[in-house]
Design a protein that fits this description.
This protein is 33% helix and 21% strand. By secondary structure, the chain is of the alpha/beta class. This is Gfo/Idh/MocA family oxidoreductase.
C-alpha cells in the first residue's frame, strides 16, 4: 500500500511517548491523523479533542473504522506484538516504539507477520523507533568504524549510567518494573536504544555473560543494575554497564582498535590515533614496554542537523509514499538488541555463558515462571510529573 497524498495515520497508546509523537505528527504536511487510541477512555477522548480527531478505545476498532494506512504503536511492551501482528494482517504499515517485543519469540512472531504481509504487498513498511541512530555523535562513530579508521576492533566498553530513576518513577504506573507488566527492568525499558546502538556499531556478540541484580536499589521485582561481558567471533570483547541507581551518572564509550582508541564522552569524540598497527608493533617492536606513538585528535561533529523521533517518522512516511526506501531502522533489526538483552538475563538467571543463537524457548519459559510465581505487590501512584525529555 502506498499513497501520493497524505498518509492516513493513527496512534495507539497515549501515554508520555504517544503524546510526544503527536506534537510533531500534527505539524507534518504529509500526515493525516485519522484517529488516536487508548484503552483509558478519558485519555483517548481528551487527546482526540486536543488534536481534532476521532477517539478509539481499542486498536481493532481503529483499524476497522478509521481508514488507517499506517500506525504508530506506543503502548506497554507486551502489547507491541499483538497490535503489530493485527496491523500487518490488515496490510497496515507499522512504526513501533522500542523494544520490538519483550522476548525473542514474540519478536519472531511480529517479523513473521510482517513477512507474510510483504507476500501480499511488497511495499508494506515496518519501522522501529530507534531515534538514537540519528544523533550526530552516534552517526559519526558509525562513520568512523565503517571507514575502517580503527582497523581490527579489539574492545568496546560502554558505561551508561545516566538512567537514574527514583522510586516514585517506578511507582508511577501499575505496569512499570514488573515481569507481568513490563517484562523486565533497565534492559527492557531504558536500554533498548543502547543495545541497538551496540549491535549497530559492532554486531551481535557470539557469547554473552550477564550479571543482573534484581531490585538492588529500588522496590521492584526486575533488574536495576546490569554488567555484561561480550565475546565476538572476530575476537573483539565488549563490556556493557548500566544502572538506574547512579547519580551523577556516566555515559562513556571506549572503542579500541589496532590503530588507536576512540572515546566518546560529554558530547565529544576523541581519537588517539596510533602511528602504526598495534598488532604489528606487538610482534615487531624492539622495545619491551614502549607504547606506539599516538596523536590526540578531537573529531569534529556537526550537531546542527535534524535528529530525534521526528526524523525516524519522516523516513517512515517517505518510504510509504515512495513504495519503499531506507529507514533509520527497519523493524526486523529490533530482534538483534532484544536478543542481547534476553541473553544477558538468561545468563544471569542460569549463571552460565549463553552462546548465540540463544534458546528463546528457555527464556520465554523463565519469564512465564517469573510472572506466575510473582508475589510482588505494586504500590502504584499517579503523583509526580513524568519528564520524558530526560530519557535518552
Amino acid at each position: 500500500m502506498s499513497t501520493l497524498g497524505k498518509v492516513k495515520l493513527g496512534v495507539v497508546g497515549l501515554g508520555g511517548m504517544g503524546n510526544s509523537h503527536l506534537r510533531y505528527l500534527t505539524q507534518m504536511d504529509n500526515v493525516e491523523l485519522v484517529g488516536v487510541c487508548d484503552v483509558v477512555k478519558e485519555n483517548a477522548d481528551k487527546t482526540a479533542a486536543l488534536y481534532n480527531t476521532i477517539a478509539y478505545y481499542s486498536h481493532t476498532e481503529l483499524f476497522k473504522k478509521s481508514g488507517i494506512e499506517a500506525v504508530l504503536i506506543a503502548v506497554p511492551h507486551y502489547d507491541h506484538t499483538p497490535i503489530s501482528i493485527d496491523a500487518f494482517n490488515k496490510g497496515i504499515h507499522v512504526l513501533c516504539e522500542k523494544p520490538i517485543a519483550v522476548h525473542v519469540n514474540d519478536a519472531k512472531k511480529t517479523i513473521d507477520a510482517y513477512e507474510r504481509a510483504r507476500e501480499e504487498d511488497p511495499t508494506i513498511i515496518f519501522g522501529i523507533m530507534f531515534q538514537e541512530r540519528t544523533l550526530p555523535f552516534h552517526k559519526k562513530i558509525k562513520d568512523i568504524l565503517d571507514g575502517g579508521e580503527l582497523g581490527k576492533l579489539i574492545r568496546a566498553t560502554w558505561i551508561n549510567t545516566k538512567w537514574f530513576r527514583s522510586q516514585l518513577y517506578f511507582d508511577s504506573g501499575d505496569w512499570r518494573a514488573t515481569w507481568a507488566g513490563e517484562g523486565g527492568g533497565i534492559l527492557t525499558n531504558q536500554c533498548p536504544h543502547n543495545l541497538d546502538l551496540y549491535q549497530w556499531l559492532f554486531g551481535v556478540p557470539a557469547r554473552i555473560n550477564g550479571f543482573a541484580h534484581i531490585g538492588k536499589y529500588h522496590d521492584i521485582e526486575v533488574e536495576d543494575e546490569v554488567t555484561a561481558y561480550f565475546e565476538h567471533d572476530n575476537g573483539m570483547v565488549g563490556h556493557f554497564i548500566v544502572t538506574t541507581a547512579e547519580t551523577p551518572g556516566s555515559n562513556r564509550m571506549e572503542i579500541v582498535g589496532e590503530y588507536g582508541k576512540l572515546i566518546y564522552e560529554d558530547n565529544k569524540i576523541v581519537f588517539y590515533r596510533t602511528r602504526e598497527s598495534m598488532l604489528r608493533f606487538i610482534k615487531e617492536s624492539q622495545s619491551r614496554m614502549g607504547n606506539v606513538e599516538n596523536w590526540y585528535t578531537e573529531i569534529p561533529v556537526n550537531v546542527n542537523v535534524p535528529s530525534g523521533h521526528r526524523v525516524v517518522t519522516e523516513k517512515f512516511i517517505a518510504a510509504i509514499q515512495n513504495g519503499g526506501g531506507e529507514l533509520i531502522a527497519h523493524g526486523p533489526e529490533g530482534i538483534n538488541g532484544l536478543t542481547i538483552a534476553n541473553a544477558i538475563m538468561l545468563s544471569s538467571f542460569n549463571d552460565q555463558t549463553i552462546k548465540l543463537p540463544m534458546d528463546a524457548d528457555e527464556y520465554e519459559r523463565k519469564l512465564d515462571e517469573l510472572i506466575r510465581c510473582s508475589r510482588y505487590e505494586k504500590k502504584a501512584t499517579k503523583d509526580g510529573v513524568m519528564d520524558i525529555s530526560y530519557s535518552q
